[in-house]
Structure formats: C-alpha cells, structure tokens
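[Discussion] Sanity-checking designs against the backbone

I'm trying to build intuition for which residues belong where. Below is a structure token string of 152 positions. I'd appreciate it if someone posts a full sequence so I can compare it with mine line by line.
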C-alpha cells in the first residue's frame, strides 16, 4: 500500500521520531493538531522533544503527553514555547509495575495549534531532542521525520 501516513512509507530508519500526519492542510479559521510519534523506540522514561516551527505562521495552543508515557500515574510535562522553539519535557512517573515504558510505536505528545498567517511552513525536530531510559542513559534515535503545514 502507498499510504503516505504509514511510517514504512516515510523513509525513516527506526528507531525514529516523526510528525503525524506529516502534512497538514488547513485554513486560517481552524485549529489543528499534530502528534509527535515514535517508531520502534526502545523503552524510555523521559523525553526532551525540541520542536522547531515557524512562529510567524502558527501559534501553539497546548501540548498534551500521549500514550507512550502513560502508566498508572499521569506523566509530568513541562512546556517552554519561545518564538519558534518548542521544548517539551515529559517524564514517566514510576508506578508499582514499571519505571519506564515498554517502547514500541506510539505517540509521545500531541501539539494543538492554530495558524496566524497563510503559506507553507515546516516542523522539525531540533538537535536537543533526546530520550532517556530509567537509568538516565540515552535511548538511540536513528532518524527524524519532518512535517509540513499548508495554510490557505
């Protein structure tokens, strides 16, 4: 199948992070969301997701930690939004069963936003993007997908 939203069709070398959907077509009078997705990730307990966006094109409304960091306890998240750089820190809170997730292919977070101007802009993972396991060791990420926003 040639589904462009299928990670297998995105030229990603797992373990990888990507934006889902990879392309968003929207209008000025609407809000939209994009998931920060992990593909075949190893177990992790924390993430620093460094997302680069065109702050003249879109405005961030909110960020919500997603399935990848869910356990019996809600994850802790800290979001810092500074003119085109969105730093998302997510920490899995240990429970009686586990101090890190099981890894796999899951959404890490969802970003809700709305356009502030028409045109095209890009979403990228910045160089500070990191995942850590329960021992605070790095979790390897081989490739990063990009995303595109088209506003009419």
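Best answer:
Here's mine. Compare freely.
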């Amino acid at each position: 199948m040639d589904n462009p939203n299928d990670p297998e069709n995105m030229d990603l070398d797992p373990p990888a992070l990507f934006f889902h959907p990879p392309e968003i077509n929207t209008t000025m009078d609407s809000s939209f969301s994009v998931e920060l997705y992990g593909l075949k990730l190893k177990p992790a307990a924390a993430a620093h997701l460094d997302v680069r966006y065109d702050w003249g094109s879109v405005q961030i409304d909110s960020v919500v930690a997603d399935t990848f960091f869910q356990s019996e306890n809600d994850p802790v998240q800290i979001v810092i939004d500074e003119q085109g750089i969105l730093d998302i820190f997510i920490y899995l809170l240990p429970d009686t069963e586990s101090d890190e997730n099981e890894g796999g292919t899951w959404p890490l977070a969802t970003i809700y936003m709305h356009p502030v101007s028409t045109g095209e802009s890009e979403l990228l993972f910045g160089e500070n993007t990191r995942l850590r396991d329960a021992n605070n060791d790095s979790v390897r990420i081989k490739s990063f997908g990009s995303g595109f926003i088209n506003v009419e």
